[in-house]
Amino acid sequence: MMKSSKDQEAALLEKTAREFARKTLIPDIHETDRYPHGPFFHDALKIAFESEFLHVSLPETLNGMGWKLKPLCILLQNISRVDASMGSVLLSNAAAQELMLAAGAESILADLVSQDMAATDFLTAFPLFSHPNEKAIQVAAQLRNGNYQLAGTADYMVPGPIAGRYLVPARTSKGFSYFLVDAKNKNAVSGAPIKSLGLHACPAADIAFSNADGILIGREDEGAHIFSKMHEKMMIAAAAAALGIMQASLDDALKYASTRMQGGRKIIEWSELSGMVGQMAVMTKTAGMLLQKAVSDADAKDTEWAVQGFAAATRILSDACTVSTLGVQVLGGYGYMRDHLQEKRFRDSRHLQSVFGAPGRRAIHFLNQFNKSNRK
Amino acid sequence: MDENALWFDDYSCGLAAIAKQPTAMIKEIKHATALARRFNDEVVNKRSLEIDDELDRNPDALPHDWVRQALEWGLYTNWIPKIFGGRGYCFPSLSHFLEEVSSSCLGMANLIGSHYLGIAGVMSTGNLAVLQWLCEDMAESHKRGESCLASFAITEPSSGSDTASADLIDRGSISCEAKKAPGGYILNGTKIFISNAHFATWHMVLAFEDIRNPSSTAVFCMVRTGTKGFVIGKKEDKMGQRACPASELIFTDCFIPDKQVCLSPHMVKGINKPYRDIYQDVFDDLCSISRAGVCALGTGVARGVYNDTLKLVEETSTTDGWLINQEWVQMKLADMLKNAAVSRLIYNEVNHANSIYGLFKPLQTKPLYYLSKLLPTGWLAKLTRMIVKWPLVPYLFQKDQLGRRPEIYRQRTSGWASLAKFAGTDAGVENCEIALQILGESGIRHANRVEKHLRDARLLPIYEGTNQMNRLDLFKNFIGRNSRHVSMYSD
Ligand SMILES: Cc1cc2nc3c(=O)[nH]c(=O)nc-3n(C[C@H](O)[C@H](O)[C@H](O)COP(=O)(O)OP(=O)(O)OC[C@H]3O[C@@H](n4cnc5c(N)ncnc54)[C@H](O)[C@@H]3O)c2cc1C
Predict the structure, then answer these.
(1) How near does any CA of chain A get to the CA of B451, in Å?
(2) Could you tell me if residue A136 is inside a domain?
(3) Burial class of residue A271 (count of CB atoms within 10 Å of its CB; 0-12, 13-18, 19+)
(4) Is the CB of residue B194 below 6 angstroms from any atom belonging to ligand 1?
(5) pTM above 0.90, yes or no
(6) What is the ipTM of this complex?
(7) In angstroms, what is the span from residue B228 Cα to ligand 1's centroid?
(8) Is residue A367 part of a domain?
């Protein structure tokens, strides 16, 4: 059977992502995982930018691939299979872009893509690991002489220390709204990179605003609505990154367990251990199927896509933690060492699990969305 | 034996211990806990995050100042019995001390715990003579203001889980060889992942006269840092517990005199048991002690992360009000507290089992306990030195420990210790995971300590036997012994 041009495009993107990860991320992965004590992957990011990985989820008019989830998920899955830090830089940028599109701020994005700039300048930092319903928003916006000015601190902006601009939620008269602030604005000061559990090369920083000018994105007090539109799509994208971590964990566990000998046989031949690897395989395969369905339903705008996608993503993000834990345990003492990447996957999966807020609250957010969709 | 009576005795060690243990132990345990709290306040809390960060920046560095501070606080000799020149705190109080320190920093707790693991290794071979000179060397060094730590080295590149089981090691692949030579042994081979190796003066090393028949030819010996033919190799770059280095030991024609041999097949004459069974008993006795300690580490991290989470939760306001007032959070905090409390109960039960059925017994019977509290250390140590010089005493002691303890006693201490090891360490890791569930972004920040607790805790289900191997040990000791058709490691 002939492959459709869409399938061919997807296969090509997958191949490109894998090559990119293999050639540009693997060689320095141990050093870049030490950021900020080690180097930042500027060269890799430059290649990602030149390969238009940072545009992939945009509409075609903005050099993207048709405002679809599939290309973004292909990238995130295959890149995170090697390094979820790069995956998360792309994810955060895509979340910011998606939010701007959801708010109808296409012209700002058009302006951005039309300019010639460095990869880091193109990036928009976003509070990827928070949910506006959880922690109270610490930034307030005030309209002065027709301009909005922001004051307060935005926590954990990703990739705050290197981005060209910040997309920040700030309190407005009856709720909250999103604002875009230029990182060169001297009233917006980025803190040092925050040392964190995982995703070390995806830097985060707290950004302090002292009456910094911000451009309103969408309409005032519309923040909750546009967040929710972005959120339902980007949760699925985050799950793609988590799936990449699961696949890599499974690959390594299978390889190790099939060669490591204990008690005179390959450890995979002990039924207990083979059950552990089996559980990893079941979860990874299930996650693959869930993701595929969630992405195709989302791109086809299926009526149920948003709730189903959220449910699938919630499952995948959580199972990625289980799979990466099992992966460490299969490798025994070696799994705890930084020479083996499994300990990184263990950290990264937990870090990623906190995408868009505390994982423990996710089921509550889901039920709200579920009820809304049932009412419709 | 009546199954119900067995069930009662197996699972009520604490009750049986009430009448048998000296009540003054409770005061001593409280004292050890208070000491740990002060140590945390004055030393550990101030430096733990910083050291973790420094060692992330430079994985080859060694935190000598930590070792020094623990020395100044007397922490390497407090749990050495007075008869050997130490301060003679009762052994169960060590678990409580370790729990407390782990609640602040597991790396520091492991550094101290691994030192006592080395000493417990010697204790479990029943060699009173080696125990006497080793502990005295440590106590004397301490008096001079020098640290003299121990490590315990059994793991090899190709033998991890296998090592603690006679059944498995005989089928596995071993490389560390001890060749008999006039006046001692010559060691060749490599050990890996050895906690404290870079800081220790004495290493309890396991090697084999015949690497094709290891359990029947095992040699347990003490090797001093600086001995010709012995070098400390690569220091591992770990996910957590960075304050306690884990490193490689490399032996190349390293001569060890007989005086430093704790146990070998030539030393068990008169013990009516195959040496292979003795090998297993030594490991079971050692793990009965050490796994209580690891459960205490799990309990400590469970408590530490609970405390840190509670603090963060109390400070967090959400759009729905204070986070602490949300029911889902209250339930999760309750689970965390339950995990810490239950784990503590479990390691206490192991300590009770060890006190009445295991290696703690000699020093915790009431007359000996009180005598050792009343008499001055110098006097007791001198007396022991004299007694131990008389060869019959160490011989009888070792024979009694290795040859006469009823099997059911060993099953009880070993069964409980395995249960404690996986239950306590699973609880520690689980609490860290719950913390991340509640806290999201504030949980992943290094400065808030929660993520460090998780990285540190993740080692607990791996060392002292993986938690899988500990479940199998529990099966062997409490379940398999009464079941039909049972044979271990045969599926
Ligand atoms: C930081 C650190 C510090 C350490 N400190 C010390 C120390 O001070 N002294 C020391 O001697 N050792 C130490 N160790 C070693 C530790 O005890 C071993 O890592 C542990 O026993 C597991 O062995 P392994 O790593 O070789 O894993 P393996 O034994 O190779 O196990 C790999 C996997 O296979 C499973 N497996 C193996 N055999 C079986 C079986 N028969 N049935 C079912 N499953 C099986 C295991 O459960 C595990 O999941 C340390 C390790 C680390 C990581």
Answers:
(1) 6
(2) yes
(3) exposed
(4) yes
(5) yes
(6) 0.97
(7) 29
(8) yes
